[in-house]
Design goal:
The chain is an alpha/beta fold. It is 34% helix and 24% strand. Strand 7, helix 7 and strand 8 form a beta-alpha-beta unit. The termini are far apart. InterPro entries: AAA+_ATPase, ABC_transporter-like_ATP-bd, ABC_transporter-like_CS, ABC_transpr_LolD-like, MacB-like_ATP-bd, P-loop_NTPase.
Length: 242
């Protein structure tokens, strides 16, 4: 274990170059106790190879958001194991989880989550400021990402001046800012019309290829599911692979 891993509690369990990007083993998560307990996940297991875009589907309340929060290190499981990019999340303390979310995982939310008073470029640059990237490198990365998502001409506009589809494109660019190994998206097209949602999903597939990352995307849209490399379905807290 390196000095850095010892300090943060990180535990590299396997060679990241050979391991899947995501490994989930026998994951359980319940809320409440006794007869009133809700069993959101019941022994969920799956792997996601590097470079895949995997769609996660399931009816409302099936546990999709719970699963995404666990994989993203935002919540803790009652039982089971999660390994992201060769790192077992159980071996990470709070500081280690914070570093994982900052450096290796990009989050895309249904509600966009943009800062209203900041321009598109400033929103995309927030993660790079938090990681203390060199200002020149930050500006170059922001410009590259906004061009990648088709918003090179909208860098100075604030979220309120952009359409829903454009705001989600900014959110995608922001999620890619620190070159994450894994993108996690929770219903990223849920607030968009069908045509715009399809365009955003196609963009996600394109950036996974161009940026060389892996993506786990929760969606219930059958048209969007067809763009994924693989589909996992959550039903009664268990995974059904298609």
């Amino acid at each position: 274990m390196t000095e850095s891993n010892a300090r943060t509690g990180a535990a590299v369990m396997e060679d990241p170059a050979e391991a899947p990007m995501v490994r989930v083993e026998n994951l359980h998560r319940s809320y409440g106790t006794g007869e009133a307990a809700v069993h959101a996940l019941r022994g969920v297991s799956f792997d996601i190879p590097r470079g895949e875009l995997v769609a996660l589907k399931g009816r409302s309340g099936s546990g999709k958001t719970t699963l995404l929060n666990l994989v993203g290190g935002l919540d803790s499981a009652d039982q089971g194991r999660i390994v992201i990019d060769g790192v077992d999340l159980a071996g990470l303390g709070e500081e280690g989880l914070l570093e994982l979310r900052r450096d290796r995982i990009g989050f895309i939310f249904q509600s966009f989550g943009l800062i209203p008073i900041l321009s598109a470029a400033e929103n995309v640059g927030v993660p790079l400021r938090l990681s203390r990237a060199d200002p020149k490198e930050r500006e170059e990365r922001v410009a590259l990402l906004l061009a990648l998502v088709g918003l090179a001409d909208h860098t100075s506009q604030r979220p309120g001046e952009l359409s829903g589809g454009q705001q989600q494109r900014v959110a995608i660019a922001r999620a890619l800012a620190n070159r994450p190994a894994l993108l996690i998206a929770d219903e990223p097209t849920g607030q968009l019309d069908a045509e715009t949602g399809l365009a955003v999903m196609e963009l996600l597939r394109a950036v996974v290829r161009s940026e060389g990352c892996t993506a786990l995307v929760a969606t219930h849209d059958a048209q969007l599911l067809g763009l994924a490399d693989r589909v996992l379905e959550l039903s009664d807290g268990e995974i059904i692979e298609h």
